[in-house]
UniProtKB/TrEMBL annotation:
Similarity comment text for this entry: Belongs to the EF-Ts family.
HAMAP family the record matches: EF_Ts (MF_00050)
Protein name: Elongation factor Ts
Gene name as annotated: tsf
CDD domains: UBA_EF-Ts (cd14275)
All copies of domain Translation elongation factor EFTs/EF1B dimerisation, residue ranges: 71-273
SUPFAM superfamilies: Elongation factor Ts (EF-Ts), dimerisation domain (SSF54713), UBA-like (SSF46934)
Record's subcellular location: Cytoplasm
Length: 291
């Protein structure tokens, strides 16, 4: 049996990020063959990842990477916020974000196949699963391109619990960041009134009409009441018409216009939104980390 040195174990750990015992076992199993040891660890990582595939990963981080005229907003999930704040997980999120921004895949499936220093994005995710002991997934991303006269604005709330990416035509980066902060805080659904689907508008109008009639208002004034309430509803869900969070005397659109700009696009990710998850106490969360 080949003698395994501490230096070999250290090198394998630095290369793969696994624990000392896992690194030593892999080197012993492969009689000191470094490349084969890496393959063994990857295979074991895949097996562990498959066992965890049924778990719910609803925590994690949103992140934004900008390279020249390309920006991407990404959500990578873990099972607990304990892992989401760990260095291995944060390193993975940064690497995945950069890879997507630079290589521009069309789908999540394509993104998982992107080449990285250690193989592919999928290999990096498997390795992080192995290191952290939790299911880790790339949930979604959106790529945004800009022209030379356009500017990106980005904001991450609380380290990545919420991410907001904004594209402006004109203005400047400071203005764009202000709008991104507004998007993160207020959570608009649409860019402007024109983007609100007709069926959503019709349903809201029906609801408002019924409410007004139930209040006992005369039918002849119900229409005007509904029109006013509908206008208020649209202003609440449309970014351009919302009261700007830093100056409620003007709308977001007017604020950007005052800076010689116009809002072109926004994307907002809130980690875990739409994912059904089991509530876990802090005690249970800590116990799960000790297993």
């Amino acid at each position: 049996m080949a003698k395994i040195s501490a230096a070999q174990v250290k090198e394998l750990r630095e290369k793969t990020g696994v624990g000392m015992m896992d690194a030593k076992k892999a080197l012993v199993e492969t009689e000191g063959d470094f490349d084969k040891a890496i393959e063994v660890l990857r295979e074991k990582g895949v097996a562990k990842a498959e066992k965890k595939s049924g778990r719910v990963a609803a925590n994690g981080l949103a992140n934004i990477a900008i390279h020249d005229n390309t920006a991407v907003i990404v959500e990578v999930n873990s099972e607990t916020d304990f892992v989401a704040t760990s260095d291995p997980f944060k390193d993975l999120v940064n690497k995945v974000s950069d890879a997507i921004a630079l290589q521009k895949p069309a789908t999540v499936e394509d993104a998982l196949k992107l080449k990285t220093e250690k193989g592919t994005v999928q290999d990096d995710i498997i390795e992080t699963t192995q290191v952290t002991g939790e299911k880790v997934t790339l949930r979604r991303f959106e790529i945004v391109e800009k022209g030379d006269n356009e500017v990106f604005g980005s904001y991450l709330h609380n380290g990545g619990e919420i991410g907001a990416l904004v594209l402006l035509d004109g203005a400047d980066e400071e203005t764009a960041k202000d709008v991104a902060m507004h998007v993160a805080a207020i959570n608009p659904e649409y860019l402007n009134k024109d983007e609100v689907p007709a069926d959503r508008l019709a349903e809201e109008k029906k609801t408002l009409t019924e409410e007004a009639l139930n209040e006992g208002k005369p039918e002849k004034i119900v229409e005007k009441m509904v029109e006013g309430r509908l206008h208020k509803f649209l202003a609440e869900i449309s970014l351009e018409d919302q009261e700007f969070v830093k100056d409620q005397d003007q709308t977001v659109a007017k604020y950007v216009a005052s800076k010689n700009g116009k809002i072109k696009k926004f994307v907002r990710y809130e980690v875990g939104e739409g994912i059904e998850q089991n509530k876990q106490s802090f005690e249970d969360e800590v116990r799960s980390q000790l297993k």
